[in-house]
Amino acid sequence: MKVAYKIWIDQNGKAFGDGPYELLKGVEKTASLHKVAHQMGMAYSKAWRLIRTTEQRLGFSLLDRKVGGKSGGGSKITPQAKEVMLCYGRFREEANGAIERIYQKHFSSLNTSPKRKRS
Amino acid sequence: MKVAYKIWIDQNGKAFGDGPYELLKGVEKTASLHKVAHQMGMAYSKAWRLIRTTEQRLGFSLLDRKVGGKSGGGSKITPQAKEVMLCYGRFREEANGAIERIYQKHFSSLNTSPKRKRS
Predict the structure, then answer these.
(1) Which of A36, A44, A66, B6 is the most buried (most CB within 10 A)?
(2) Which of B21, B88, B115 to mutate to test the interface with A (most CBs of A within 10 A)?
């Protein structure tokens, strides 16, 4: 028995969760949404739509896209994206810990004495 | 902007969440899964399947069913159901509060200064 959950930020619908967070963390590292989508086994078109929808719901840009140039283009996260990633990353970490702790507090006694159904 | 989440107990799959909890709370009050399903706008067959799946995943019975008799049958929650409901109810209440508090802690500064996308 264990606790499970999905958690996200809602604004005009599902606005920001683990998906966009992981994509943006990857872009921060690699400067390429193409690379990150590939690494995550996600179609580029899907990654792009996810970022686009997230931008629309949040109301600000997440990626600055450079097209072409010497380095062949790429993406950079915006300062606003960085800010929301910081908030979300800290929020997720603390929420993960709290949910697990509260689950243990209320369910540990139930866990130790499973009552099987007669069959 | 607000936080949103789904939370449940996993055991061999999604085992116990708000759905079974609300159904069982209703049966505790009305002694009838029929009545509760109707009140919740849920088909009886769906309510019954949900209880059945939950029992299979948890490994114990949740409802004692009386068939016929002077009162025309009905359902009673089992002691094990009562136990898991108590754990879950307390867990949910504390987890709700914690998630909201942690969200406010990390996102309140972002909320107060929305940066709109230029368009």
Answers:
(1) A36
(2) B115
B17-50: pLDDT as tens digits: 999 999 999 999 999 999 999 999 999 999 999 9
Q: How far is the C-alpha of A26 from the C-alpha of A44, rounded, in Å?
A: 13
| Cβ atoms of residues A24 and A33 within 8 Å | no
ipTM field: 0.84
Q: Cβ distance A13 to B1 under 8 Å?
A: no
pLDDT at residue A94 above 90?
A: yes
CB contact under 8 A, A9 and B4: yes
Residues A103 and B114: their CA atoms lie apart, in Å, by: 34
Contact B91 A80 (CB under 8 A): no
Render A80-108 in DSSP notation, one character per residue: HHHHHHHHHHHHHHHHHHHHHHHHHHHHH
Q: Amino acid identity of A14?
A: K
pTM comes to: 0.83
